[in-house]
Design brief:
single chain, mainly beta, binds alpha-D-mannopyranose, five-stranded antiparallel β-sheet
């Protein structure tokens, strides 16, 4: 059952609201924002995916390259080239090498009411690390020890991994580089230590044995992670049979940690569901959604760059109300509210 109350104003941020980072680029997707409250406002750190305007008969993408003029290089291939494999709007393969069709940066937007956002004219993080040449994506913001911790995906030829930054004022940032190596993404930190350690959910991917499952790990210093434990696996024949990953920081409730996660089926239809985990040992599942709590049912969630997708990695929690910000069809940003009590009720609490 879909229990989300979508904003009437959806989509709240669309392609036209976001100027490209350079004149020659086109914004193809505005999606998957991290969210946080700061200075009495709601802020988003959105993922903005760009490329050059496409030429007929070709697919092209952009890659950051310090040696290229303007710091950006275009990679283009003919659609009829037998070495090209291109059947997913998000990625293509050429001669055995995988490229993303767009390059993402992170861009800040802010709002007084959490619904109407003002978007910055320029990127906040363009992805200037050697492990970010294909872009930066899907930021989670966790408030921890009074600071904000940003975990996001860094993509490069070397793979897809988890990057970390820390800030106390949103002006200066301490960068920790890659904390979890490829292939890994969907990393969210807990808002407090557990058993004296920092804790996170993350999502390594197995190519042959294994799959796209949610894992738990702990760290004494946020940089060195251990105690890796697989918490939840995909379920064949169900809505989350193909892949799954954590959303924003777990919410502490009277019954344990409540995590809103995304799951996709073999048709790549992305929905949201819940995991309820033991307060002292979050590797122990107390309950899990049989059915999604939110599915792509609105038109803007079904049609776009990559249709039938609801993906959230940003939320603001106020009392019983969780406002999630989410990417719809990998194309626009939307908002919805969920009640913690209602979510728990779907799990039998
Ligand atoms: C998947 C999708 C893409 C994303 C890449 C790299 O293919 O989620 O949108 O760009 O992974 O993270």
């Amino acid at each position: 059952m879909d229990i989300a109350k979508r904003f009437e104003q959806n989509p709240i941020i669309a392609l036209d609201d976001v100027p490209p980072s350079a004149e020659e680029l086109v914004v193809e997707c505005v999606l998957n924002p991290g969210a946080y409250e700061f200075d009495g406002k709601v802020h988003l750190l959105m993922r903005v995916a760009e490329r050059r305007a496409q030429t007929e008969g070709q697919v092209s993408t952009i890659v950051v390259d310090g040696a290229a003029p303007g710091g950006v290089r275009t990679v283009a291939f003919a659609l009829d080239d037998p070495k090209l494999k291109y059947d997913d709007s998000r990625i293509f393969w050429y001669d055995g090498v995988c490229y993303l069709t767009t390059r993402s940066h992170l861009r800040h937007a802010e709002s007084e009411d959490g619904v109407h956002f003002t978007v910055d004219a320029k990127p906040t993080f363009i992805g200037d690390h050697a492990l970010e040449t294909f872009g930066v994506e899907d930021c989670r913001v966790t408030r921890l020890e009074g600071d904000d911790l940003l975990t996001y995906t860094g993509v490069s030829e070397a793979g897809v991994g988890v990057m970390l930054k820390r800030t106390s004022d949103w002006r200066s940032f301490e960068s920790y580089g890659m904390i979890l190596p490829p292939h890994n993404k969907d990393c969210t930190l807990f808002e407090e230590k557990i058993g004296g350690q920092y804790a996170c959910f993350h999502r390594p991917s197995g190519v042959d044995v294994g799959g796209n499952f949610i894992w738990y790990a702990t760290s004494p210093d946020l940089v060195h992670w251990g105690g890796h434990t697989c918490v939840a696996m995909t379920r064949e024949g169900m809505w989350d049979e193909q892949r799954m990953g954590a959303g924003a920081a777990p919410i502490l409730t009277d019954h344990g940690w409540l995590e809103i996660y995304h799951g996709a089926n073999h048709q790549s239809r992305y929905c949201l569901g819940l995991l309820l985990l033991d307060r002292d040992d979050p590797t122990r599942i107390i309950a899990r959604s049989d059915d999604p709590i939110m599915e792509p049912i609105a038109e803007y969630e079904q049609k776009g760059f990559f249709g039938n997708v609801i993906f959230t990695n940003g939320q603001v929690v106020r009392g019983d109300e969780v406002t999630i910000y989410y990417g719809a069809s990998d194309t626009v940003i939307c908002g919805a509210t969920l009640s913690i009590n209602e979510m728990l009720a779907t799990l039998g609490f």
